[in-house]
Amino acid sequence: MSIVLTLATTAHFACIVFLLFFERGDEGRRWAWLMALVFLPAVGFILYILLSGRFFTKTKNLVKINRYYKGIKESVTKEQLEYLDINHYDLPKPVLKDYRSLVSLNLVESVAPLTYADSVKTYCWGQDMFTDMFSEIQQATDSIYIETFIIHNDKTGKKLMELLCQKAKEGLEVKLLYDDAGSISTPKGFFHQLDMAGGETQPFFPVKWKLPLSVNFRNHRKITVIDNKIAYMGGINIGDEYANCSENKRKPLWRDTHVRLTGECVLALRSVFYIDWFTTPTWKIQQKKLQDVSNYFAQDTSKLYPYQNNIDTIKTLEEKIFDNNSIPVQVITAGPDDKFTSEIEDALIRMIMNAKKYVYIQTPYFTPDVQFYNALKIAVFSGVDVRIMVPKCWDKFYVKAAAFQNIRELLQCGIKFYHYKGFIHAKTLVSDDKVSTIGSTNIDTRSFDLNFEINSVFYDEKLAVSHKYIFLEDIKNSEVASLQWFDSRFILLRGIWGFFKLFSPIL
Questions:
Q1: Is 501 a catalytic residue?
Q2: Catalytic, out of 73, 93, 175, 220
Q3: DSSP class of residue 506?
Q4: 10-residue block means of pLDDT along the chain (507 residues)?
Q5: Rounded Cα gap, residues 445 and 404, in angstroms
Q6: In the annotation, is 425 catalytic?
Q7: Looking at 64, 152, 222, 501, which residue is catalytic?
Q8: Residue 432 is a catalytic residue
Q9: Is 98 a known active-site residue?
Q10: In 239-342, where does DSSP find H-type helix?
Q11: pTM of this prediction?
Q12: What whole-number distance in Å separates Cα of residue 72 and Cα of residue 75?
C-alpha cells in the first residue's frame, strides 16, 4: 500500500512540475489545472491526464492527414493570395475589400480557399430544417453524407435512419459519421441497421478503456451533403429536442441556427466530411510513412478538392466568386489535428477587431479565453455596439456560474447581454451588415482548443443584414441582463461565480 501511495504521490508532483515548466497552454489554463491538482489531488490528476488534451498519443496520424489535405489546396490558396495582393484596392466586391485581412487570415492559417454559394437559406428552428433536409434526402439520387455530434434513438433519429436505410437499399452511397461520446446513449444496434441496408456507419474516436485519452477530443461538426449539390451545416444535432418535439414537456424551447447551401462551397464541406471519414481508421492502423496517408483517400483526389493544380479552373472559380449573384464563402475548420488549433477563434477575433459599428453574437456557452475576452473589451471601448445572447435556461450549472462572472465583468465594460427565454444553441456572429458566420463553435475553451469544429464565413451584405434581423427578432423573446441584478446577488453566490470562472479554461 505504501508503494502505491508513493507512486501516486510521485506522479502527482511530476504532473505539477510538468504544468509549471513544460505545459504549452496559456497561463489561465495552466493555473486552472494547477488549482484542480491542488484542491483535488487524486481526481485532479486523473482529470488532467484524460481531459487536458496534452496526452493525445495519436495526433501524428491526424496531422499527417490534415497536412496531406491542405497540401492539395495550396495551389488554390496561393493563387487567391496573389490575386488579393494585386487587386487589393480594386476588388470587385466591396465586402471582400473591407475584409481582406480576414480572408487572408483564413487563407494562410486555415488554408481555407474562397469559394461561393449560389444560395443560402438560414433556419432558426430545427423542425423547419429537418422538414427540408428529410425531403431532400428522400429525393437524393447519388449520395448522402452525414456527420453529426449527436444522433438520438428517438422519433427524429429513427425517421432519419429509416430514410437512410431506404436510400442505401436503392443503391445510393450513404455514409453516417457520428461522435462516439456525443451519441454514447444511442445503442450500437441503431447504427447497424444502416450497415445491414448497404450503407456505412463509423463512430468518431470510439470511447474504449484501451483508448481513454481519446475521450477528450470530440467531433462537434454537423454536416450533411446530398448528391454533392446541397449541404446543410450549423449547430443542429439529430434528436427530438432539436426539433422541439421531445416527449419531455419540461424541456425548454430549443432555438438553434443552421444553413442550407448550394454552389461550389458544397464541395468544401464534402471535403471536410471526407477527411473526417478517412481519419477514423487511423485508430486501427498505425501509419509510419507520410505517403501512406494517400491510401485512405479515393484515387481521384479531386473528390477532396476539385481545383487542385488547375490554374484555369482556379481562374473560373475566382470569376464566380466575384459574380454579383454569388455569395463568397470560406469554410474554416479547427481541431487538435491542426498546427494552431485556433483557426476559428482567430477568425472570430479578427471579425470583432474589424468591426466599426456593431458585433452581435449568439452562443449557448460563454467562457471565453483571455484573447477573446480582450477582443470584446477592446471593441466596446472603441465605440462598437457589442451584444451577446446566451440562454436563460442553462443545461450545465457550472458553465452557467463561470459564464455569469464573465457576463458581470463585461457588463461593466458596456457590452449588452440578453438571456434568451429557453435554450439558445445557435453559434453565430454578424458584424456591420457585411460579414457573418454560422457553425458549430461555442465561445468556450473546449470549442476553441479541443473539439473538431467547423464554421462558414459569409461575405455578403444582404445575408449579413438578414442575420442581424434574426438577432434583433430574438431580442423580443429575451430578457436584458442587468448589471444591477448581478451586483445585487448574495456575496456568497458571486463568490461561487468567481470560483467557477477560475476553472473556465478547463470546463
A1: no
A2: 220
A3: G
A4: 67 66 62 68 65 55 72 84 81 88 94 94 98 98 97 97 98 96 93 97 77 71 97 98 87 94 94 85 52 56 64 71 88 81 93 97 93 96 98 83 89 97 96 98 89 96 98 97 87 75 61
A5: 16
A6: yes
A7: 222
A8: yes
A9: no
A10: 265-279, 311-321
A11: 0.88
A12: 7
